[in-house]
Structure formats: C-alpha cells, structure tokens
DNA sequence: ATGATTTGACCATT
DNA sequence: AATGGTCAAATCAT
C-alpha cells in the first residue's frame, strides 16, 4: 500500500516538475511527451497495483453484484478518491494557466481523440463487442427510498421517446493526459444533466445531457456519456441533434465538437478537478460563454445570425479562449490568438434530425 | 432565489 | 417483459 502511495506521489511530483518547467519546454513536444509518459507510468503502476490488490475476484453476476464485489469497488473508489485528492491539490494550484499555455502551443492542429461517426447500428455493434457481458459491477451506493409518491404524470406524454435515433455522432474521448482521469469529457458546450442510468452489460452508468439552452432556444442537442467497460479512462460520447442555440451561448467557438474537443478536454480537466462534488459541471460554460470571437472579422458576432456549427472546412478561428477562460491576465502570456485548424472534420451534414 | 444535479418513476421502443 | 430515455420532485450549489 505504501508502495502505491509513493507511486502516486511520485507521479504528482513529476507532474509538478513538468508544470514548473513547462514554460521553458513549451516548444519541445518530445520533452513534454516524455514527461507525460513518466507521469502516466507512475500512475499506471499505482493503478495496476491497486487493481492487483483488490481486483482478483471480479464476480460476474448478471445484474447485481454480490455485496463483496460492491465492497471491493467501493474500496477502489476510495483509493481513487485519495488519488484524486492528491491530484486536485496539484491541479488546483496553478495548472490552469500552464494548461492553457500547453493547449495553445501543443495541441493546436492535433486531434488526439478519435472521432468516429457511426450510425446507431454501428455503434451498437461496437458496444456489444466491446462491452462484454460481464456486467453487473455497478458501484451504486444504496438507493434510498425517496418516497416521491408521484403519480401525477401519465398525461403529458407527447414526446417521442425514440430509442436511439439514427444519427448519433459517437466520439471516443480518452481520458485527459493531464491529471484526473475520472472526469467526464466535455466538449465546450454547456450541458445539463437530466438523467443517468445503469446500462445492461455495462459497468458504468450512462449519463444523459441536454443543451443547457434547450428551453431558451429550443436547442435539441443532446449527448450521452458513458465510460467504456474495457477502459474506464475512456469515455464514449454520443451526440444527438444539433445545436440551434447560438454560439455565444453554448459553444466555445465555431469549432465543431470534434476539434473543440481537444481544447475543451483540457479545460474540463481543470474545471472538473473537484470530482467529489458532483454538481459543478457547468462553470465551464461560463467562461466559454463569455467572449469568444470567431472568424477573424466578426467581433460582435450577432449571435442569432451565425451558423456556429459544422461546416467550417478550412477555417481558422481566432479565439480568445485562454483569456476568457481564466481571465487571468497574470503571467500566461495572454495568447490572445490561437487558431484551430478545424481541418479534417468531415461531419457530413445530417440536418434531418428533427423531432417535433 | 435561482439554477444544476440526483434519482426514482414513468413510458416508448424493442 | 426488458431495456433505455426522459421527466420531475427533491436536493444541492451558488
């Protein structure tokens, strides 16, 4: 156990070192990469040991895990929380600035996440392959009877509760390289969670989000986020519907989800640092909401006129992200302008996503 | 007070 | 009938 902790702490230390050095090596991707590798290695080693210690019996009840398993999972979670706590401390300190710098300099033009678009069918195929059938292990703390003897519904059922409408754009988002890997991915839009569900044959629950501005702008955009069974550090995000709300409200910029993901990803990291507090999801939107000029010419960007989403083929976007994000005019060389090359995003328009 | 999240219940789809 | 998606009351956070 001590070994594990020392591994973790070592990882933290390495990360700190990296942080300190970052300004110096910002343009040495290889060096940074090597550092990251070391950090990751350290944490992975810790994780492996944790798993080895607790994981040997992963019983495969079909629906509900035996108490023992639940306990095991619970312990694991506690470990994870301890790890998280360490990381939080580090992350909280001042990484934010550093990260924005990294993102600015390093991630531009790269697409570390593989965006796959598949129809629902394909998606289903993959998930059945991937999520093998040893379901069960959900870490559900006891559900308390909530005594909401509510039955005054059953009349307002006019919404099409379509199951998995055809056009899902599915994104697999690996855990952030930096810091906490438990954080749900973000994509720059602001979402409101409206549900969570245990999914059969999946270890982890699926979370349901809708656009925060659904009611304001009738924005139909939705997404579902679920951790992969195989690889809990990877999230599968399925998008349904397109944003009809205007960009300044929810979108980080005109970048489609795929390319904004890389930026968002990092920000998520910072923003979700406090994982234990489950309800702090949406500050992110705030900075994004603030002031994101796009397109190099339109500064005022009349929101309602701008087509913010999809089809920005070779556009370079200038966004004042870092500034807006942390409004930290301090040392982080206010990189007022960095551009994303939202090049190879081939989101074929599937506008026929109507429900109403 | 307002807005977001949690979570059991409800209901459409398979 | 089972499963997944959504609703909405209760709760939490700001």
Automatic annotation (TrEMBL):
Which organism is this protein's natural source? Answer: Citrus sinensis (Sweet orange)
Q: Where is the composition biased (Low complexity)?
A: 149-159
Q: Which InterPro entries match?
A: WRKY_dom (IPR003657), WRKY_dom_sf (IPR036576), WRKY_plant (IPR044810)
Its name, as the record gives it, is: WRKY domain-containing protein
Lineage, top-rank taxon, reads: Eukaryota
Any matching Pfam family? WRKY
Which residue stretches belong to region Disordered?
128-189
> Biological process (GO) annotations?
regulation of DNA-templated transcription
State the UniProt keywords alphabetically.
DNA-binding, Nucleus, Transcription, Transcription regulation
Which GO molecular function annotation, any one, does this entry have? DNA-binding transcription factor activity
Ranges where the WRKY domain occurs: 185-247
Gene3D superfamilies in the cross-refs: WRKY domain
**Which spans are transmembrane here?**
none
Q: Where in the cell is it found?
A: Nucleus
PANTHER family according to UniProt: WRKY TRANSCRIPTION FACTOR 21-RELATED
SUPFAM superfamilies referenced in this protein's UniProt entry, alphabetically = WRKY DNA-binding domain (SSF118290)
Q: Where is the composition biased (Polar residues)?
A: 167-180
Q: Cellular component GO terms, alphabetically?
A: nucleus
């Amino acid at each position: 156990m001590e070994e594990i902790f020392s591994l973790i702490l070592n990882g933290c230390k390495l990360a700190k070192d990296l942080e300190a050095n970052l300004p110096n090596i910002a343009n040495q991707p290889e060096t940074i990469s090597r550092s990251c590798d070391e950090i990751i290695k350290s944490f992975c080693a810790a994780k492996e040991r944790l798993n080895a210690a607790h994981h040997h019996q992963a019983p495969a009840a079909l629906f509900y895990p035996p108490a023992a398993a639940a306990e095991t999972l619970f312990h694991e979670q506690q470990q994870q929380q301890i790890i998280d706590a360490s990381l939080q401390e580090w992350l909280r300190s001042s990484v934010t600035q550093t990260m924005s710098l990294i993102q600015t300099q390093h991630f531009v033009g790269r697409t570390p996440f593989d965006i796959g678009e598949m129809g629902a069918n394909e998606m289903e195929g993959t998930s059945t392959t991937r999520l093998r059938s040893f379901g069960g292990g959900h870490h559900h703390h006891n559900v308390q009877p909530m005594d909401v003897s509510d039955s005054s519904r059953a009349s307002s059922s006019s919404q099409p509760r379509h199951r998995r409408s055809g056009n899902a754009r599915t994104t697999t988002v690996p855990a952030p390289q930096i810091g906490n890997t438990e954080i749900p991915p973000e994509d720059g839009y602001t979402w409101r969670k409206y549900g969570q569900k245990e999914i059969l044959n999946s270890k982890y629950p699926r979370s349901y989000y809708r656009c925060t501005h659904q009611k304001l702008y009738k924005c139909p955009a939705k997404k579902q986020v679920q951790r992969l069974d195989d690889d809990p550090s990877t999230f599968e995000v399925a998008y349904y519907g397109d944003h009809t709300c205007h960009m300044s409200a929810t979108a980080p910029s005109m970048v489609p989800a795929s390319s904004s993901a890389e930026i968002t990803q990092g920000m998520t990291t910072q923003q979700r640092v406090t994982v234990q507090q489950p309800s702090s999801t949406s500050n992110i939107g705030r900075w994004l909401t603030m002031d994101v000029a796009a397109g190099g010419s339109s500064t005022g960007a009349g929101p309602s006129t701008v087509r913010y989403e999809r089809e920005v083929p070779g556009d370079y976007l200038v966004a004042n992200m870092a500034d807006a994000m942390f409004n930290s005019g301090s040392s982080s060389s206010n990189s007022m302008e960095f551009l994303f090359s939202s090049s190879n995003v081939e989101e074929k328009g599937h506008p026929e996503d109507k429900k109403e």
